[in-house]
Write a structure and sequence with these properties.
By secondary structure, the chain is mainly α. It has four helices and no strands. This is DUF1104 domain-containing protein.
Length: 81
């Protein structure tokens, strides 16, 4: 009986689990622009928009490049190489 309850709990936790973008660094958020699943877009954009005023000039430049598509998939932000 305990095993069944555990399995049901795990299934529900996976169904209702959501990405937690607040635990990601600003660099990581910038890197995944364009790769976030549609169902997670709202929480991703909320977190990203809350960080824009606090971004360094370098992060803002990387953010703008990512939005404009100037960074290819193979390119990485310098700090992550």
């Amino acid at each position: 009986m305990e095993k069944i309850a555990l399995i049901i709990f795990l299934l529900f936790s996976f169904v209702f689990a959501e990405e937690n973008y607040s635990e990601m660094s600003t660099q990581e958020l910038i890197e995944i622009i364009g790769y976030v699943k549609e169902e997670n877009q709202q929480s991703f954009l909320k977190e990203l928009n809350s960080r824009i005023p606090k971004m360094s000039e370098y992060e803002k430049a990387q953010y703008e490049k990512r939005l404009s598509g100037d960074i290819t998939q193979e390119e990485q932000i310098e700090d992550e190489k």
